[in-house]
Each structure stands twice: as structure tokens, then as C-alpha cells.
Amino acid sequence: MRKINKPLAAAAAAAAVLGLTACTQTTGASAPAPQAVVNTQNQSNIEVQSEEEVKVVPDKAEVSFAVLSQAADPKSVQDLNSTDVDKVISFLKSTGIDEKSIQTSNLGLQPIYDWDDGQKITGYEMRTGIIVSDIPMDQVGTLISSSIDAGINNINQISYMSSKYDESYQEALKKAVETSKVKAEAIAAASGRSLGEVTNVQEISSYNENRYTTYDADSSRGSLEAGAKQIAIEPGQISVTAQVTVTYSLK
């Protein structure tokens, strides 16, 4: 008859229970469930994975605009788009935005087709993206509305960020390590052992991946003009998460 290692079986059962409990406590629906794993090759160690989250209110924003121009031929649309972009950039600078916070990107030129007339080219369209960063949160709504009047006819994205992100991430890391110890102690006790010292800590979260919370707001000029004066910005909170794997010795 096959013998069952009771301490190890108890540890596995405790790990399963803790895993289910952790799932109910996870604040983000897409966040992976924290895991606790007993290293069966070396039963003097226990490895625990833990994730924690800290909420922070954003105080800055980055807005991705675009200027879209149309004309009969490539040269005309290039000249028109250049004039429109210069007008917008001049306006942005006049509002007090630092030149370093204004970046042009995603320059594109393409023909306009009349598909009902055998794919006939009827004109050309040119698009220039403009990214404006480091906008104080209380100025975002006003800036967007005013930019539409200045010639912006597309808003692609609004990204929210916090100057306290680094501080919040460190707090989430600390909480994740503390949570790992609570889990490890419970598993060790369930297996008839006691928890020893930390032998290894590994940060497994992506530090920059969730630095910003992004809202897609791609719109046409017509809809923007209709609602320009009613734009309201509600950034909510940024979720800052940290995930670690901690290995403890067992006594």
C-alpha cells in the first residue's frame, strides 16, 4: 500500500484553501490569483506568491490629439495640414504648456477613394498626431474644449497618471511581502512545521506596465464640436499592483 506524507498533504490542502480565499480578495478582475507552492524537491523550503494593490488618485494627464486635413492633391493637403498643426501648437504654447510637453507623432498621408466609382481617388487625407503630456488634472477638460476650437479634430486617448506612482508601488510591494509571510506561516503550521528565514525574494510584477490608466476617446470633428463645451473629466483612481514570490526556510 502506498504511504501518504500527511504533513505534505496538509500543506497542499492549506495552499488550496488559501488560493480560493485570495481569489475572493482580488480587487482587479483580470489580476492572477496569488498562489502558494510547496517545493516538493526540497521540503526544507516553501515558496509563496502574493499580489497586493494600492489605489492612487491621478494628478496629471496625457492627451493624444490629431489634426486631420483633406485636399485635392498631396501637396495641397500637406500644406494645409502643416498650417493647421502650427496653429494648434501655437495655441497650446499660449496656454502655458511647456514646449517639451508637446510632441508630434504618427504622421500619415493616404488617398481618399470613391468606392462607388471603381476605386477612383477623389482627394487626399493627411493626419498628424499631437501628444500633450504633464497636463494638471484640473485643466484637462478646459484644454480639450479649447483645442477643438483651435483646430484639433480628433481626440485619440487620455492617459491618467500620478506623481505618487513610485511611492504607491513601493507600498504595494511592502504589502505583498507581508501577505506572503501570513500565507507561508499558515501553510507551515498546517504541515506541522514552523516558518524560518526568508531565503529568496523575487519581484515578478511589471513595474511600468500599469503606470498609466488609459481611456480611448477617438472621435470625429462633428461630434467633438457638438459637445466641446460639455466635456467633463472624471479620472477616478489608478490601480497600482505589485506581485512577488518569496521563499522561506522551514523548521
Radius of gyration: 27 Å
Low-confidence stretches: 1-34, 36-41, 218-230
* Overall average residue pLDDT: 78
Pairing-aware structural class of the strands and helices? alpha+beta
* Tally of domains: 2
Question: Rough shape?
Answer: elongated
**Helix count, per DSSP?**
5
Q: Please trace the helix and strand order, writing H or E for each element.
A: HEEEHEEHEHEEHE
Helical amount: 25-40%
From the N-terminal CA to the C-terminal CA, the straight-line distance is 29 Å
Largest sheet entry: 5 strands, antiparallel
| Strand adjacency order, main sheet | 4-5-3-6-8
Please provide the count of β strands.
9
Under the CATH scheme, the architecture of the largest domain is 2-Layer Sandwich
Strand content: 35-45%
CATH topology of the largest domain: Translation Initiation Factor IF3
Record the SSE blueprint.
Blueprint: H1 6-25, E1 36-38, E2 45-56, E3 60-71, H2 74-94, E4 102-114, E5 120-136, H3 140-150, E6 154-161, H4 165-190, E7 195-203, E8 213-216, H5 221-227, E9 238-250
Helix pairs in contact: 1-4
The gist of it:
The chain has 251 residues and is of the alpha+beta class. It folds into 2 domains: 6-57 and 164-209 and 241-250, Translation Initiation Factor IF3 (2-Layer Sandwich); 60-161, 2-Layer Sandwich (Alpha-Beta Plaits).
What does this structure look like?
The chain has 251 residues and is an alpha+beta fold. It has 2 domains: 6-57 and 164-209 and 241-250, 2-Layer Sandwich (Translation Initiation Factor IF3); 60-161, Alpha-Beta Plaits. The protein has helices spanning 6-25, 74-94, 140-150, 165-190, 221-227; strands at residues 36-38, 45-56, 60-71, 102-114, 120-136, 154-161, 195-203, 213-216, 238-250. A 5-stranded antiparallel β-sheet has the order 4-5-3-6-8. Strands 1-2-9-7 form a 4-stranded antiparallel β-sheet. Strand 1 and strand 2 form a beta hairpin. It is elongated and about 80 Å long. The two termini are 29 Å apart. Residues 1-34, 36-41 and 218-230 have low confidence and may be disordered. Keywords: Signal. Pfam families: SIMPL. This is SIMPL domain-containing protein.
